[in-house]
């Protein structure tokens, strides 16, 4: 497995890759994001924690160009998420707790279908490598509907890497994964973070802290804590409990 | 173009594996034709205009089943969201879906037509392949393009509503009235054995509707599926 991931090109850290300035999002009268400011530099791994409904998925959806912000500015690799969506889409990969797979297609077909859009060179070899790397090559001809949830999630992650995106957005990727699946995901991300910029939202404190370079805590649509230093598990618990007020007010 | 064909191929493959839409359309059409036939008391003196209307009602109703499922299948597991992440024009996604829907609906219509001939025109005289069946099929294809182009467009809208199955006919029917009226009129003229010159203008109108609907829907599709930001 390591061989495949280690083949990925090296990348210099330093330049600002993901930026949110006073980012706002409203659904009707309901404000989901309120003046979010975030910076992620090239090669950094940011983990965003926060309670349910804090706006984490909405934030990633904006960065991934799924939804438009209502106010403020969001830039990915220098491109505006509102005006330069196509340029951003070429550079990013997105993993969600929804597998976003076609149930009636096989594992191979799901990966190949997406790879074909990105003109991935030697697509068959790439699909083969990527399925080997997640231990699903032997299941390549099985319809996705026959795979376990853990296998589907691994497949969804593998599919995201088919075009070797330089930026990854991971929305609760550990959700529903068993111990083996979670370990595999952690080892993949551990290797990916060497040369990719990654933003992940998670409730999994252990995995989230072990992988990240910096953290942010989102609560009620606001960044209530951010740090370039990653705290220990115990410190984080204190920080989290002191910052997160969800449920305290209406 | 490659992107359109990729989506088209994927949709047909999904349908081939799931076999959800096509058999349902055929059985539904068969039942509908049977009901109409019983309602008309198996008479053989029904005028051609009524017969044309019956066949188009059958096409539209069974076609709606396919169109309704078109985006529902994409919604399962949020697969459509991943499709939206791909850096391709939204028009290509629409055209790919349109093409696959078109093939499914037209193939089902090809299966329905013999049943229609059997139920309503089994003792009709003067029906020939070149003068009646093929022109009838041609008009069917033209009318279907207009209907499916609008249906595919509104299916993507209806799938995000709670009343998705009820919403699609409500959105599509008012707008396809001109296509249905024209198609029924031309089909009726063909069955009556009228010369091409008699219905040529209607055919031109049908082609114009098709072009307008396909162009407009492919251009507006991006605005329909992208978030408004409000």
Question: Could you outline the blueprint of secondary structure elements for this entry?
Answer:
The complex is a heterodimer of chains A (250) and B (230).
Chain A: H1 2-6, E1 16-27, E2 30-41, E3 45-49, H2 56-63, E4 71-76, E5 79-80, H3 85-91, E6 92-95, H4 107-117, H5 123-133, H6 149-160, E7 167-171, H7 179-192, E8 197-201, H8 205-211, E9 214-219, E10 222-227, H9 233-243
Parallel strand pairs in A: 3-8, 3-9, 6-7, 7-8
Antiparallel strand pairs in A: 1-2, 1-4, 4-5, 9-10
Helix pairs in contact in A: 4-5, 4-6, 6-7
Chain B: H1 2-18, H2 21-39, H3 48-75, H4 79-85, H5 90-120, H6 129-158, H7 164-191, H8 196-225
Helix pairs in contact in B: 1-5, 2-3, 2-5, 3-5, 3-6, 3-7, 5-6, 5-8, 6-7, 6-8, 7-8
Mind explaining what this structure looks like?
The complex is a heterodimer of chains A (250) and B (230). In chain A, the strands form 2 sheets. Chain A has a 6-stranded mixed beta sheet with strand order 6-7-8-3-9-10, with helices on both faces. A 4-stranded antiparallel beta sheet of chain A has the order 2-1-4-5, covered by helices on one side. Chain A has helices at residues 2-6, 56-63, 85-91, 107-117, 123-133, 149-160, 179-192, 205-211, 233-243; strands at residues 16-27, 30-41, 45-49, 71-76, 79-80, 92-95, 167-171, 197-201, 214-219, 222-227. By secondary structure, chain A is of the alpha/beta class. The longest helix of chain A has 14 residues, at 179-192. Chain A is globular and about 50 Å long. Chain A is 34% helix and 25% strand. Chain A has one domain: P-loop containing nucleotide triphosphate hydrolases (Rossmann fold, 3-Layer(aba) Sandwich). In chain A, 46% of the residues are buried. Chain B is an all-alpha fold. Chain B has one domain (2-225). Chain B is 83% helix and 0% strand. Chain B has 8 helices and no strands. The relative contact order of chain B is 0.14. The interface between A and B is medium-sized, with 32 and 24 residues.
